[in-house]
Design brief:
alpha+beta, 5-stranded mixed β-sheet, 7-stranded mixed β-sheet, 26% helix, homodimer, 769 residues, 18 helices
Chain lengths: 769, 769
């Protein structure tokens, strides 16, 4: 097997350098979207539907237009009327959203009209004066309801409210069932939870009539996708759209797609020839941005008596909400990754995304994987109980090994899954005596860690590097810092690859005109793909540095030169050295000289999966196990998470602080998902208006003990062997906690969140038996 | 001889496309320095010396500090006290200027103190309250005065007020004098003229205490030189300086060096932690920015009776003014290029830059060449008269030919000098009968047209190119648009080299963090050097485009493919074609795909001249002749230029509109230099406060007939064969007019400007004889 590029000893990779953007953020110098200001800039506001489902009969904007300071009042009739949707370029049917709806509104909060005015007050005053005549329509609030024959149609074109169906599967399922000696059938379900980014969604658009270019400042995770989406919905060429990604106050996947402020601000700017800014309120954040799709899973699992999985069939309903957004993609993920945690020789998955008259979900860290993993890992524990096999042992019997190829064709070139399992089991001390109400649980995860070739056949990233005369490195890279520490990791990788100090590196990745193309930061790909792009360019520069240094040092053989910390020296004579600044100057200031510059485009060596999901979709796969220890109040059903142990196969740790932070953050979000967060009341509506209505775990709500174990399997394709660690931290948290709760109480909650009410009711039901 | 890269037929190169920045400028969208605005930005103002020469005894800033709104009052004592100067890195002695002077002031207008306040009014009020005690010192106002023994010293370290001495020469001068059958001795002199850029000098500086970085928005021709100069004078590492070049309202060389607003704004921002803007008034423009150095020439020319030049010796005094700036560079140019117009087998030059207590000169289009050419081309006409040889014929006998190497080692690989001469002579119709007071004159020029290797051994430029999925090309290039049309030429060259449409190209060249290094736009190098940088990168992309297109078109042989206007087709089957957007997408959206990206650094294949000036300093040389027809009022001495004919060997015309514009502008400035402009009154002082005090030729002052002939010699190193045309237009104008005046009147004015008073006096002197 190939070895990753990793010239030892490493000096920067593996050390916990401070974030490259840390000081900027701490001192308030970082330019967030709300800091973008232009003279003459207008405030944009959006009028939203007060009804869950209604036909728009008439919109009267006359009174609104007369408000002093109002520069534009816009309805769907004033727009090109082109629908958008994240997967539109893969399937035109997946475009179902208008910037401003014209015929119907489909959820409370749907965009109906917009105003641009000299200030927010005037805009809000005008908003209140727009008169919309609605014909109220019957609405549906759950997939089950929506699928019933005769149910009201959210979109007339989607018969039966079926938005999309995704089927995945592999292996001989008939044989799997024949081999099954035990079969379990269970129903699991998960709820909607919000990423709650501290920075609200916002956009500043500026149309320049001279050039015809619309410039959009937006905190997007995928600037080049946004460029395409925005050009499409505005009906102008992509060359006339210019995206500048502002500093992001968290993304978590929710900023992958174009959000309503992007096209609405752009359309208002096109109309007014003025810069227009839209900033969402926290209420709009809950009403009108993306959240984790609720899913339900009808599962059928077959095993041999010895605990070998033989077959698995799952039917999933995805509650898409009023529009489709990323529901097909999330169904695909839910239908592949959770089935790959263990050796599953045969499985079938059918995911149906269903329209309902609710706010619509989208990407959120894990992207279908946390939902599916909750089901699969619950099933595993239930099977262990059924088979009378220790649940850790059951897992051991179904693990992967490095070099395996899964039934879906995933080639596991690096795999420290077993080490992760054993590390967590060891830390959990399963044989320790625990008191009443105490329990432990475990759950695994499988996630692509080397990109995923699913988006129109490029999963690449470009990088351009130049070294200045003073030895400073400037990186222009497509891959985005989204708050996760990506730019820090990229700077470390570049510094290591080139033998520079970390402080000598600058990273620019915000302006689509200037940076080379990248798919966008999502799917735990950024460090892997951008890191490899940077290494590809750095290798070219490294050879040139060594060549010039050899000249300057009169070295007999360039192979004997070592590079690090901004210098080049002769291995056995470290005193014979030269700085990289001197090398840069020497390369530059000579006849036929050149500045140290290089570009590279890295596209992971992966396959686009076929329609069944078969194909080696990622260049590397991340593994891990989480263990939870909980204390459950047997009276109230209240769950306290005492301890979390997380072991992750990260390939290589680039930045231990960053990797730990990723896992810690994932655990916090996972605990919220497991125990408390829930966007929708039972009736299907959301009444959230601010963070006080929506509890997310704060520092005090986290377990006192969080133990994070980073295990290095050195992936042959990873930058210095690294694999993605962005999403894994959240994926197994909920099932680990659910399994611990079951261990503690004897009752299994298969429906998230695991509230005291549900535990209490389950305990009472057991007692009543 | 090598052929230039020039895939025929050309589609864009050679056509007069509109300027790439034209619409932006016409509609007011272009971001000039004065358009840069930040919240909390302070206004900076500079206190200047009211005396030509004085010792600073005390500065009291207390009253100024108390003005409401004042945020900083700064004197030299508050600064690091590091001197700067354009040639400091070549010779530390050439640094003689402080941002704010501490010991002495050396001219009326010298920088003494600075204020930053919330608005201009407060800053001006504070400025008026700064009290400076001066000890008035005797001053010198001309080089001749300054060189006298016992003259007051402008800089104590420069004994005899000699700022720098430059000696150049080649050939066997003794033999030259032995061969001379006729010897002429003459004295020529030229005055100070101002470039009069419409945009005043300005700078916005913003110090970010979080990163320690100073960002400077400045309309500089040489952002990377400015980065180095500013870092040096602030005493901080170059990595902590970030230059953003704003759109420039003309440079003409005057914005090559760091101007006082750059360091003063930066120092005020460092002090206040606020953005600070300094904008010069027109009075400050005349007082405190650069202009063409006055020079005088003591010449001795030897020729054979048959008109062959045998020897030439010139001693030049450069009136440097109070500081050195670019005087040594200009002396070097005056001591080389004018001696290279004709075959001069042996010459000696000694140029002495002398300090005087006047505002100081600097770079201005031609950079010593217009001054020296005025002397040499006057001498030629005087020699023709002396020898009784037709002045056109005398020139013919001393011309270069392609393939020649001059006595200084300049290799003339392309040379259409003879065609230029004959074209101008033909157009001038020398044998036509002209009336009384009418005359014609001619003068030649020699100028590097392929860069000049004189600045620390790199004359290069880097370019990074990327082609977007839609076939749009983004260029990141170090070479600067300074109003001359450089970006337009670069876009044409790139479009041609890649087979794109002109409209598909974007050029970015403003931000030193992002663009690759370039020496800076000066010396008529931009199109040549940047153009070659772009071609170098484009060639790499072109191969890839053809390779992918061949695949898409199932072409048997990529050699049979043609590229142009955004498409690739099979030569004999033009219907079998594919767009470059399709090629870009196909290259990108595939396994192992990559975005079309390439970088290149071009450094012209030239030699750094030795201390005598010997060495092939440029990769190409531009030639030309100007002819003038004048009408001189025999009573008043008033000169009317009736007609100018300009023939230029430009190698290849990239943009006929741009090239003609360059020559027309040069003629306008040359007429001002020849006839009217003069910054200093006889006493040596300037009292100019606004444009009404300083007449420059306006449209109505130009001759009705300007005939421009662009002759293409196809230089083997030039981009598509092109050579520089930025400076040539101004160089021979004054001597052509002077020669026409002499032809018209029989009197020769050897001292510019050729005013009616001088002609009148000369005519009277002749009459009185």
């Amino acid at each position: 097997m190939a070895e990753p590029f990793s010239p030892e000893p490493l000096r920067i990779v593996g050390t916990g350098v401070p974030r490259i953007d840390g000081v900027q953020k701490l001192t308030g110098q970082a330019l967030y979207g709300v800091d973008v200001h232009f003279p003459g800039m207008l405030a944009g506001k959006v009028l939203r539907s007060p009804l869950a489902h209604a036909r728009i009969q008439n919109i009267s904007t006359e009174r609104a237009r007369r408000v002093p300071g109002v520069r534009a009042v816009m309805t769907g009739a004033d727009t090109p009327g082109i629908k958008y949707g994240f997967f539109k370029h893969q399937n035109p049917r997946y475009a179902d959203k208008l910037p401003l709806e014209t015929e119907k509104v489909r959820f409370i909060g749907d965009e109906v009209a917009a105003v641009a005015a000299v200030d927010e007050e005037a805009a809000l005053e005008a908003l209140a004066l727009i008169e919309v005549d609605y014909e109220d329509l019957p609405a549906v609030f759950s997939p089950e309801e929506a699928l019933k024959s005769g149910a009201p149609l959210v979109h007339e074109k989607a018969s039966g409210n079926v938005a999309a169906i995704v089927r995945r599967g592999a292996g001989d399922i008939e044989q799997g069932w024949r081999q099954a000696e035990v079969v379990l059938e269970r129903h699991y379900s998960t709820q909607a939870v919000a990423p709650c980014c501290l920075e609200p969604h916002q956009a500043v658009a500026n149309f320049d009539p001279a050039s015809g270019v619309v410039t959009l400042w937006s905190s997007t995770q995928m600037p080049f996708q946004l460029r395409r989406e925005l050009a499409d919905v505005l009906g102008i060429p992509e060359a006339k759209v210019h995206i500048i990604k502002t500093v992001m106050g968290a993304g978590f996947g929710s900023r992958m797609e174009m959000h309503a402020p992007d096209p609405i601000a752009a359309l208002l700017s096109l109309k007014t020839h003025r810069p227009v800014r839209i900033v969402y309120s926290r209420t709009e954040e809950f009403q009108a941005t993306r959240f984790r799709h609720p899913m339900s899973f009808d599962c059928r699992l077959g095993l041999t008596r010895s605990g070998r999985i033989t077959a698995l069939e799952v039917k999933t309903l995805v509650d898409s909400g009023a529009y489709l957004s990323q529901a097909p993609g999330e169904a695909t993920v839910a239908g592949t990754n959770p089935f790959s945690i263990y050796k599953v020789p045969a499985f079938r998955f059918e995911g149906t995304a269903v329209y309902t008259n609710k706010p619509y979900g989208g990407a959120y860290r894990g992207y279908g994987n946390p939902q599916g993993t909750f089901a699969i890992e619950g099933l595993l524990d239930e099977a262990a109980l059924e088979l009378g096999i220790d649940r850790f042992e059951l897992r051991r019997r179904n693990l992967h090994n490095a070099g395996d190829e899964t039934v879906l064709g995933y080639r596991l070139e690096s795999c420290a899954q077993r080490e992760c399992l054993e590390a967590v089991v060891r830390a959990l001390k399963p044989h320790q005596k625990r008191g009443r109400g105490r329990g432990i649980g475990i759950a695994g995860l499988f996630n692509p860690g080397g990109g995923t070739r699913v988006h129109g056949n490029s999963d690449g990233c470009g990088a351009m590097l130049k070294i200045e005369d003073d030895g400073t490195l400037q990186i222009l890279i497509g891959g985005q810092e989204i708050g996760q520490g990506g730019a820090t990791a990229i700077a470390q990788i570049a510094a290591e690859a080139l033998g520079l100090t970390y402080e000598a590196v600058r990273v620019e990745s915000s302006d689509t005109n200037l940076i080379p193309w990248d798919l966008g930061t999502h799917g735990s790909r950024n460090t892997f793909v951008s890191g490899n792009a940077v290494i590809g360019a750095a290798k070219k520069l490294r050879s040139r540095i060594i060549e010039v240094a050899a000249e300057l040092l009169n070295a007999e053989n360039p192979d004997y030169l070592e590079v690090g910390a901004g210098r080049v020296w002769i291995q056995r004579e470290p005193d014979r050295s030269v700085s990289i600044a001197e090398v840069a100057k020497a390369a530059h200031y000579r006849r036929d000289g050149s500045v140290l510059m290089a570009e590279h485009f890295y596209d992971p060596p992966t396959e686009e999966p076929d329609s069944t999901g078969h194909g080696n979709k990622s260049a590397a796969y991340s593994f891990g196990f989480h263990g939870a220890e909980v204390d459950v109040d047997q009276e109230t059903g209240e769950v306290r998470v005492l301890r979390m142990v997380a072991a992750h196969d990260v390939g290589r740790v680039i930045n231990p602080l960053g990797a730990q932070g990723q896992v810690e953050g994932g655990i916090a979000q996972g605990i919220g998902f497991a125990l408390v967060e829930n966007m929708f009341a039972d009736g299907g509506q959301t009444l959230l208006s601010n963070m006080q209505d929506y509890k997310i775990p704060a520092a005090a709500d986290l377990p006192a003990e969080i133990e994070i174990l980073l295990i290095e399997s050195r992936d042959p394709h990873g930058p210095f062997g690294a694999k993605g660690i962005a999403e894994p931290g959240v994926i197994p948290v909920a099932p680990a906690i659910a399994n611990a709760v079951a261990d503690a109480t004897g009752v299994r909650i298969r429906d998230l969140p695991i509230t005291p009410e549900k535990i209490h009711a389950a305990l009472r039901a057991v007692k009543d038996k």
